[in-house]
TrEMBL record:
It comes from the Eukaryota. It comes from Salmo salar. Pfam families: Ndr. PANTHER family: N-MYC DOWNSTREAM REGULATED. This is Protein NDRG1 isoform X1. Residues 354-406 are annotated as: Disordered. InterPro entries: AB_hydrolase_fold, NDRG. Belongs to the NDRG family. Residues 382-399 have a biased composition (Polar residues).
Length: 406
């Protein structure tokens, strides 16, 4: 095993237990704080409800969507909404990230709504044979009903794989409802004819879990991280309803392209593209690298950030949750929120280091805003090659409109 593979193996192995841990609500995140020790007569369910935890099955025109709400929405501030990839649910996709200690500061500022696609949540029953599984476009149209159900005004979307596609589609059709997007392993294009034929041919000899694993992980990671792969194979096989998963998988493989186009100054300024800031994330050994880079090339460069994480595989939120949290916090601060939050390690390193790790166009720097007022201009930072040793010293950034003086 190579040194790089061994490091990934060790790092991934440390994350495996968090797949099954139940992430508890941090009581300090809620404005209406409750001292659980003073509530001995209440059941656990009532206590969890009082501190901002609820699970709802939201009825939509395309079926029932299971949602898990954590925290209490803060006034007009957006809610963080997650959407998972195929073969996963919100826990197995995002629990390692939201359980990370550095994420707790973000959760004190924002409520979180985890959305599970129809039939994909933990303990889901087999969908009726009369039920037609929604297309990816239709899945995106379940989200307006989720917002209406919880009375959300707007969201910051966090999606992985198929979930990234769903949230991006939602943002394209409802730009007034989305303030920002963090898209892990986004693929904006439709499945090619060659890919479709390949899936049909391999479908004769490969089981569904193998298809899903090949979607998530590259060959190098499958070879070098047997414990991680075994954990997800077991989860996909035993914890996810196979009939429901097959329908979700087929829906994703049948997706249409997002049909986005990069705006060109003095050209196609009205091109169809995301109107909100977007952070695109991919591991450097992920099978989604090419698709993410291509998606980035089609988005507005003044609104889009590409984060390519070095020594990282198909699930950055699992293998490197701390570094992804740092990038997420920096992204949110660039939107004008959390200005009173503690300085991130990334920014501290820029302040303390004598060497420059960023080039800044100070003439277009974003004006500062308070914590409750979103900025009208947004940070655009291209970050590549986040090393395995430390995020503080090896982030290479080219920056436009950054809020930090250079």
């Amino acid at each position: 095993m190579s040194r790089k593979g061994a490091h990934q193996h060790q790092q991934a192995s440390q994350q495996i237990p968090s797949l099954v841990e139940l992430d508890e609500v941090d009581l300090e995140e809620n404005e209406a704080q409750v001292n659980v020790n003073l509530l001995p007569g209440l059941t656990g369910a009532v206590t969890r409800l009082m501190v901002g935890f609820r699970e709802d099955d939201v009825e939509t025109q395309f079926g029932q969507v299971h949602c898990t709400m954590k925290g209490v929405p803060k006034g007009s501030r957006p809610v963080i909404m997650t959407f998972h990839d195929i073969g996963l649910n919100y826990k197995s996709c995002f629990n390692p990230l939201f359980s990370h200690e550095d994420m707790q500061e973000i959760m004190r500022h924002f409520a979180v709504c985890h959305v599970d696609a129809p039939g994909q949540h933990e303990g889901a029953s087999t969908l009726s044979t009369e039920y037609t599984y929604p297309s990816m476009d239709q899945l995106s149209e379940t989200l307006p009903q989720v917002l209406k159900h919880f009375r959300f005004k707007s969201i910051i979307g966090l999606g992985s794989g198929a979930g990234a596609y769903v949230l991006a589609k939602f943002a394209l059709n409802h730009p007034d409802k989305v303030e920002g997007l963090v898209l892990i392993n986004i693929n904006a294009r439709a499945e090619s004819v060659i890919d479709s034929l390949t899936h049909k041919m391999t479908g004769w000899i490969q089981a569904l879990p193998d298809h899903v694993l090949n979607h998530m992980f590259g060959k190098e990671e499958i070879q070098n991280n047997p414990d991680l792969i075994a954990t997800y194979r077991n989860h996909i096989t035993n914890d996810v309803n196979q009939s429901n998963l097959a329908q979700f998988f087929k829906s994703y493989q049948s997706r249409r392209g997002l049909e986005i186009e990069r705006p060109v100054p003095r050209g196609n300024i009205n091109a169809r593209t995301l109107k909100c800031p977007a952070l695109l994330v991919v591991g450097d050994s992920s099978p989604a690298v090419e698709a993410v880079v291509e998606s980035n090339a089609k988005l507005n460069p003044t609104q889009t950030t590409l984060l390519k994480m070095a020594d990282c595989g198909g699930l950055p939120q699992v293998s490197q949750p701390g570094k992804l949290t740092e990038a997420f916090k920096y992204f949110i601060q660039g939107m004008g929120y959390m200005s009173s939050a503690s300085m991130t390690r990334l920014v501290r390193s820029r302040t303390a280091s004598g060497s420059s790790i960023a080039s800044c166009d100070s003439s277009r720097s974003r004006s500062h805003t308070n914590d409750n007022q979103p900025a009208r201009e947004h940070t655009d930072v291209s970050m590549e090659n986040v090393s395995n040793s430390t995020v503080d010293q090896t982030v290479v950034m080219s920056s436009r409109k950054t809020e930090d003086a250079c």
